[in-house]
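Forwarding the complex inputs:
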Amino acid sequence: MNFELTKEYIAQLQKAIEEQDTGFIKTEMEELYPSDISEILYELDTDEAHYLINQLETDLAAEIISNLDPTDRKRFLKVFTSAELAEYINVADSDDAVDILNEQNIEVREEVIALLKDREQARFILDMLNYPNDVAGGLMQKELVKIKVSQTVTECVEEIRRQAEDVEKVYAVYVTDDEGILLGIVSLKKIILAKRGSKIADIFESDIVSVKTTTIGEEVADLMQRYDLEALPVVNVQGRLLGRITIDDVLDFVTEQAQEDLQVVAGLAGDVEETDSVLTLVKARLPWLLVGMVGSFMAAKIIDRFDDSVAAIPAIAAFIPLIGSTGGNVGIQSSSLVVQSLADKSGLDTSLPERLRKSLWVAFLNALVAGIFAFGGSLLVDGANVPLSFVVAMSVMSIVMLASLMGTLTPLVLNYFGINPAIASGPFITTTNDLLGYGVYFLIVYLLL
Amino acid sequence: MNFELTKEYIAQLQKAIEEQDTGFIKTEMEELYPSDISEILYELDTDEAHYLINQLETDLAAEIISNLDPTDRKRFLKVFTSAELAEYINVADSDDAVDILNEQNIEVREEVIALLKDREQARFILDMLNYPNDVAGGLMQKELVKIKVSQTVTECVEEIRRQAEDVEKVYAVYVTDDEGILLGIVSLKKIILAKRGSKIADIFESDIVSVKTTTIGEEVADLMQRYDLEALPVVNVQGRLLGRITIDDVLDFVTEQAQEDLQVVAGLAGDVEETDSVLTLVKARLPWLLVGMVGSFMAAKIIDRFDDSVAAIPAIAAFIPLIGSTGGNVGIQSSSLVVQSLADKSGLDTSLPERLRKSLWVAFLNALVAGIFAFGGSLLVDGANVPLSFVVAMSVMSIVMLASLMGTLTPLVLNYFGINPAIASGPFITTTNDLLGYGVYFLIVYLLL
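Prediction (whole assembly, two chains):
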């Protein structure tokens, strides 16, 4: 059953909420997955959503709230009292509980934690609040099934039975010593196939991958991807098992990171969404806008030096955009390929001379075609002014070559000095190529015209 | 054990390969995960890698080859005979087998399929080759554990035992009727906790999510993410269970998609890597370069109309880059936010008037700050020419407002007409904003100076 949301369905539900028809609401919601109910909440106003959530079982409501998008959730939970919140946080998965509390202001957070009935959950949450949400400590949940290495498969099955309600996804059982030090795992498949009396010590897998609480999210994602894991245990410096990170959280993390990367390329400072406040959006957009303008002022300073040439042949000005945008486009094309292969572990084998040799060939062929195209195009624009068109074509060719070289070298140099090339390449390359481009263009103009 | 690759280790291994010290190679490789051996292969030359692979167990070798990056794998497998390839394809997971064969040319592909000992694998591969690799049919594997609804838990455990070797990751057992129509699943947790004699019919979960072979990859990823699934069954039009898609493949798919999205923003046509051939790279880069140039020629045509103004006040030309890049930056910032919220299902509640109202406020505040900044900056550049600086500031303000509006509206309009706004917005918005920007600038120059 794949659920599809319709306007009619929402209208029907809104009517039921208005009429406080709890019978209809409960029956309808029972039919749906928690994630589908989360989708419905986005379509209701805050009070309607609040009413609907309050009609549901606490466990179900907690899961629905956990599924919500952080920005929408923050707005939505404003109408909840701390007591209501505490009720849901009490039964939510520990990692979701921490995320939700992190979105609240400090007073609400403290009130809610004080009100939690499950004191173990409260202690864990207090510990987890110390980690930023992009390291293993901030991504992990405490819900997992663990067993001591001295126990048997029968005891293990009992343990699974006891914890089954708390732990939604059991992929494997974690094996520890008496001090809680992580020794390995037993997969559920192995437990099913083992004789009930077998000792855990005889069947567990000791050769496993684990991470520390401080391991960064990118490395967590990389490890889970490289080793095809569905869960990754998190240990402290002594090797004590603290929690696990499940693959669904890593998938969410990777998706968010991808969005942030795209935003960096689009020139947005910080992770924002269209639904954020006007001021947040302005703050995310202005810095890069102003940095870009500083680059343009430097370009203006260069062009200003050639005002005699411009005054003599004003048509020169018409091709300034061609020079700027061609340089920018070529630079971003080159650098993004290099950034990408730097991020990819399988690219280690490309040596610097090999990289340059290839990028120069690509640049040369691009420059040739772009130069011919520029000659033809500018002839059309400037009324068959052959000398000027020749200058434009020469400039385009030089700029394609130079911008390719800069675009290839910049990320390599930044990477060498330990600066993340993905973030720093864009603005640096665009500005440098702009300045280089105008310099070359006006130099050729000055020399040839 | 978290493996780290060192130059010393590679040198040691290369020495062992040169001396044909198979004992050393086998002992060392036994210590490692298959994915770590894949990493090592990237550092060896093709013949060394070929030799190393041939020393390993067929199953292990097949897994290592499956883990390789497609581009590197294609190059690497060129030294393998069809008979060698067939040996590995025979035991590889069916989805990987299809991927590997898809990378080979048609003769090799047919030879290998003809040589496969496992004829069931051969038949499945022939079926799968019909699907593009970005739909469910191309992402699925046939390896899964299934059982008939009429059977018992005891029989199910036997079935798991029988298939355990073939199916590496068992998350759940699929339940079908006698015709193979998918009815539901039983989780391993439930099997462990159930009494051995229980009937599958009594314990299986019938309310599950499945997809058709033609479902696109993005939807597969979205479903698995929304419902936190680790595997998704694939059925044909009659509902017959054909295979499953596992979350590790979806994680790979999402990562690749993110890379492609970034490439689109960077102006690359088609999915390329730095290691691709010179000609492939030129083909990916030239189209967008030339399209961008056409836009610049149109800009040149506009600027050309004002050559009297430029001849009179050549300093006007100096601010052409400022106008162009500010408009471009603002447009991409605005459009990427809208594209992002169009892709996000939770953004459905933003109405058009609400969107425009907000985007105008953001634009207004940005325009105000950018305008003041432009006034100051241009005063510095043009030697305190107040009238010109005023014109530049006015133009920047107008362009920030106009480009924001265009950046917001264009993706919405494209989306309305069913055109993917993510792909088409970038070049369209950049070109339109350039033209708009130069038009406004020279109009203000013409009117005020």
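The mean pLDDT of chain A is 88.
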